């Protein structure tokens, strides 16, 4: 009785130890690379205080990559990676089969959205021509009179038509004029999940990492298995390393 | 002599019975006092220290609290405890509670109930360990796997020790896993009624499978100890889903049904469940002595499973060809199930069946009475028809009972 009982308990211990050994083996033998993230909202009810991570490679602009294929939800995909000058990696392509001779990470397709981009040509009241890239420009037609609120770098904060009832006051510089030309570019964006989207931190610290506006300072070190599956090896922030 | 729970309600009845026996001259007054003395001891124990169930309840609740406490301790001191420290706490508390539990229950045997609870605590710590290790290493690849691992680790122990508590933990864990895994597979589908219905059918199958396994275990002496969690959960799940199905209303355009009602997402669960069900049925048939009504019970379960399977495999076809009448079918089916269960419960003197049957009978009556989606006329017919069915059943049984009693030359009491 005693021996059998101990054997069954050992089975549980082996299962737990197996998780630890497996993960260490993965990190030690896997190819390590750095990925940049984008900020998202925190907390995962199931396991306490989590940083939910969204990577730059979490959404892939299929149009820019020149990919015509469409991917079904939950379909396994291989995302091809290339190194940036700063040492982090970016996605260059995506396929259903692992590419040979390239670095790739395995993920699952989540859903596809359509991203619309606008390029607007505006002739202001002094007759000068401006090219602007507003993030939304749906209801405006050629020949409309429009006001653009700009930020200091010349990016569009918001825009409104003269005929709109909603007329905000611009806090920074602004441009007014007639719309000469509107070009719309639509491209499909694929959302991908890699299983490395959460990072546990102690109570309270999660918000700090997520609220650090300059997410370029936060980099994740990922260990890749041969089949492209990744696991988090460490989170690097402001020169500190969290494992 | 082990103390069973029946022993505590029994003495009071026995006292009145013994008085009758004395009057009828079956026993003399000496024998009566000996018989009563045998149970008075237990009564005293109960009066002073509370019934055995209270001890079990206390120590199970205690185990739960300690288990949660350990998780909270690690969580609240996350940065203060090193990685190795966290792992040590997990492994030491795991080994500690299993070891102490084994010592109390088996080695020394002086605190069997508390010992059993400590072993349950060990299994809870094992589950907590899985999630804490996943947390320490940021493993979130696929969360339901953790639950599956927990179940896989506890199941052998539950079978070996024959603990209802461990088996209950295991089954609840596996059902939660099933729900998480299934909803993960459907997570990219917008959940409209046909998809929810596909999930419901999966749980229906799971309930029937658990029930069948429970019945197999009940017939086998070595497994009888742990049959209750299976039967209780299986029957309850089956009836709960059956109850839900009585509200079924497709009411959707053909387009939506064509687009959704996609049971292929969940198809991989079915072969496993069906094989388990069949194994359970075959093993149930093996013993020579079987419980009363086993034929009806087994056939009933198989018919129900067949209906559920046809629905889940050909959901689109069923939704198209039956439409609203599916609801009527579900209602009749549910009523038959309830009557069958109560009937089996009485002929077998099995209170679990009677209670589940009566519970869902009252729920069903209540729900149908306030059912706004049915016309008044079919509703009234439904009640009258159901009521007549039961009344005639009563008349038939009463006549039969009278005949049997007459053949024994006994008067009705």
What secondary-structure arrangement, pairings included, does this model have?
The complex is a heterodimer of chains A (243) and B (413).
Chain A: H1 2-29, E1 31-38, E2 50-52, E3 54-55, E4 59-61, H2 62-65, E5 76-83, E6 89-95, E7 103-124, E8 129-132, E9 145-150, E10 156-161, E11 174-193, E12 198-200, H3 205-211, E13 218-224, E14 230-237, E15 240-242
Chain B: H1 6-24, H2 29-49, H3 52-76, H4 83-107, H5 112-136, H6 144-161, H7 164-185, H8 193-219, H9 227-245, H10 254-259, H11 269-285, H12 294-313, H13 315-322, H14 325-348, H15 351-369, H16 376-407
Helix pairs in contact in B: 1-2, 3-5, 4-5, 5-6, 6-7, 7-9, 8-9, 8-11, 8-12, 9-14, 9-15, 12-13, 14-15
Question: Segments of chain A where pLDDT lies below 50 for 5+ residues?
Answer: 42-48
Mean pLDDT across the residues of chain B is 83
End-to-end distance of chain B: 35 Å
- β-strand number of chain B: 0
Instruction: State the share of residues found in helices of chain A, binned by percent.
Output: 10-25%
Shape of chain A: elongated
> What is the strand content of chain A?
over 45%
The number of helices of chain B is: 16
Percent of residues in helices of chain B comes to over 70%
Tally of structural domains of chain A: 2
Structural class of chain A: alpha+beta
């Amino acid at each position: 009785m005693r021996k059998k009982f101990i054997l069954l308990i050992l089975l549980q211990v082996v299962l737990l130890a197996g998780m630890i050994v497996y993960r260490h083996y993965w990190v030690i033998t896997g190819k390590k690379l750095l990925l940049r993230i984008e900020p998202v909202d925190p907390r995962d009810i199931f396991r306490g205080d989590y940083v939910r991570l969204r990577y730059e490679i979490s959404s892939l602009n299929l149009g820019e990559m020149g990919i015509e294929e469409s991917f079904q939800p939950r379909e396994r995909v291989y995302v091809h990676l290339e190194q940036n000058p700063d040492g982090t990696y970016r996605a260059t392509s995506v396929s259903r089969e692992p590419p040979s001779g390239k670095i790739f990470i395995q993920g699952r397709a989540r859903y596809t959205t359509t991203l619309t981009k606008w390029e607007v040509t505006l002739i202001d009241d002094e007759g000068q021509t401006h090219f602007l890239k507003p993030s939304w420009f749906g209801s405006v037609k050629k020949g409309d009179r429009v006001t653009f609120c700009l930020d200091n770098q010349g990016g569009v904060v918001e825009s409104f038509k003269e005929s709109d009832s909603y007329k905000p006051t611009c806090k920074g510089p602004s441009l007014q004029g007639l719309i000469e030309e509107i070009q719309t570019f639509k491209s499909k964006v694929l959302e991908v999940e890699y299983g490395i989207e959460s990072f546990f931190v102690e109570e309270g610290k999660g918000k700090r990492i997520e609220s650090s506006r300059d997410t370029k300072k936060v980099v994740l070190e990922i260990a890749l298995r041969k089949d492209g599956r990744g696991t988090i090896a460490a989170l690097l922030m402001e020169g500190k390393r969290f494992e | 002599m082990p103390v069973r729970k029946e022993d505590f309600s029994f003495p009071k009845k026995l006292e009145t019975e013994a008085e009758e026996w004395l009057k009828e001259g079956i026993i003399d007054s000496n024998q009566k006092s000996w018989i009563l003395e045998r149970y008075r001891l237990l009564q005293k124990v109960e009066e002073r220290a509370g019934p055995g169930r209270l001890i079990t309840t206390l120590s199970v609740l205690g185990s739960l609290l300690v288990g949660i406490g350990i998780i909270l301790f690690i969580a609240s001191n996350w940065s203060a405890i090193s990685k190795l420290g966290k792992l040590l706490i997990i492994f030491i508390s795991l080994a500690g509670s299993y070891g102490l539990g084994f010592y109390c229950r088996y080695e020394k045997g002086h605190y069997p109930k508390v010992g059993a609870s400590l072993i349950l605590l060990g299994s809870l710590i094992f589950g907590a360990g899985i999630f804490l290790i996943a947390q320490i290493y940021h493993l979130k690849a696929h969360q339901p796997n953790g639950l599956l691992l927990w179940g896989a680790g506890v199941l052998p122990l539950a079978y070996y020790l024959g603990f209802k508590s461990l088996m209950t933990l295991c089954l609840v864990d596996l059902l939660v896993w099933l729900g998480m895994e299934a909803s993960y597979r459907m997570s990219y589908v917008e959940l409209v009624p046909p998809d929810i219905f596909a999930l419901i059918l999966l749980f229906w199958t799971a309930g029937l499978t658990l029930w069948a396994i429970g019945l197999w275990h009940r017939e086998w002496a070595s497994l009888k100890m742990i049959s209750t969690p299976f039967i209780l959960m299986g029957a309850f799940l089956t009836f709960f889903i059956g109850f839900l199905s009585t509200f079924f209303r497709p009411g959707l355009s053909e387009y939506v049904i064509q687009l959704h009602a996609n049971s292929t997402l969940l198809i991989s669960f079915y072969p496993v469940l069906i094989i388990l069900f069949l194994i359970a049925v075959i093993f149930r048939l093996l013993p020579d002595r079987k419980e009363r009504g086993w034929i009806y019970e087994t056939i009933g379960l198989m018919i129900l499973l067949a209906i559920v399977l046809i629905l889940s495999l050909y959901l689109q076809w069923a939704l198209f060809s039956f439409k609203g009448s599916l609801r009527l079918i579900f209602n009749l089916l549910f009523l038959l199930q309830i009557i069958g269960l109560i009937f089996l419960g009485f002929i077998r003197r099995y209170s679990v069946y009677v209670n589940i049957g009566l519970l869902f009978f009252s729920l069903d009556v209540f729900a149908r009475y306030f059912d706004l989606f049915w016309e008044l006329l079919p509703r009234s017919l439904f009640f009258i028809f159901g009521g007549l069915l039961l009344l005639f059943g009563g008349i038939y049984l009463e006549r039969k009972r009278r005949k049997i009693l007459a053949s024994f030359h006994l008067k009705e009491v």
